[in-house]
Predict the structure of gibberellin 3beta-dioxygenase.
Amino acid sequence: MPTPSHLANPRYFDFRAARRVPETHAWPGLHDHPVVDGGAPGPDAVPVVDLAGAADEPRAAVVAQVARAAEQWGAFLLTGHGVPAELLARVEDRIATMFALPADDKMRAVRGPGDACGYGSPPISSFFSKCMWSEGYTFSPANLRADLRKLWPKAGDDYTSFCDVMEEFHKHMRALADKLLELFLMALGLTDEQVGGVEAERRIAETMTATMHLNWYPRCPDPRRALGLIAHTDSGFFTFVLQSLVPGLQLFRHAPDRWVAVPAVPGAFVVNVGDLFHILTNGRFHSVYHRAVVNRDLDRISLGYFLGPPPHAKVAPLREAVPPGRTPAYRAVTWPEYMGVRKKAFTTGASALKMVALAAAAAAADLDDDAGAGAAAEPVVHQQLLVSS
Ligand SMILES: C=C1C[C@]23C[C@@]1(O)CC[C@H]2[C@@]12CCC[C@@](C)(C(=O)O1)[C@H]2[C@@H]3C(=O)O
Ligand SMILES: O=C(O)CCC(=O)C(=O)O
Ligand SMILES: [Fe+2]
């Protein structure tokens, strides 16, 4: 019998056929920090923001929940958001159908070097010598039907239903992103009038763009040796993560260093603060290190809906976020510029946020990794894993 061509393709690792985790996929240092349950009551309980209360006036309680979560965790579970559960079920179902495509079809859509969209490992994987136990697909919802022809060149029913469902989802998510941006800005202390009326804030809301990245974490014969997605901070403003009912997302918390396992709450999104929001808020809302682990018996699917500025827009601390008498803690950067800095940071082991910090203000605000709640706490994952690019 001839070998199917995808098995002959050295770029495709067949997770389904793997009976063990090969050295190429075995990560050292995965258990350097304990894992605690973020679904149990107590100080490690992942904060919950329930938007069902945000429709009533005053919204002060919801705004306070957002402020606390963004300042102390850089992440929270979002419930009561109004995106229908039945739509989320269809989204997951379509994603599963996409990942079940034959390897040849997926490899045809592979992300080329420097491409924003495409199939395969996420961009961050290029900085590490080990491979992750996952496959991913990135696309722009604004360019959905054209992007998805990479996977389904002949279109057809699966293509059409995938695009229809994702378009419906994107419409809901874009509106939800606007609502959450408003709450974030109010949580920074801006009034309703400032949110809609101040030029800088209005421009952010009007130009914010969305990117979708889908993750498939196949079940794994030895989940303690493998890693679904390496610890990272998201680089944009903020991200909605939809995780299937199989948990796997973990948030890094400092002092003591530990991983907090985010519970899989049906219908909830996890919201992560990204690096550009960290900069925009002058470090008051901090980006959060997170990773995804894999499971022995079950596949896991997740979806990241990433919000950020358009490529040409400079992001700098908002005037309202800089305390009186202080200077901004970060210089202005565009998203592509920041990705360039982060690439350099990965190859040198430095912190990308520190590389864009303004020295004098950084010293005054004590932007040290050990600064506590205001700093993006960083797990020790870099030394042994970096490859130079
Ligand atoms: C908008 C984006 C954020 C992202 C890079 C991307 O262009 C599309 C994929 C996103 C993702 C998902 C997995 C982790 C991550 C670090 C990566 O390598 O690709 C993020 C990127 C990010 O937040 O920087
Ligand atoms: O799979 C997850 O839960 C996390 C995904 C994620 O962090 C990402 O896509 O950036
Ligand atoms: Fe992420």
User: Anything to note?
Assistant: Residues 127 and 389 are 7 Å apart (CA to CA). Residues 157-187 form the longest helix (31 residues).
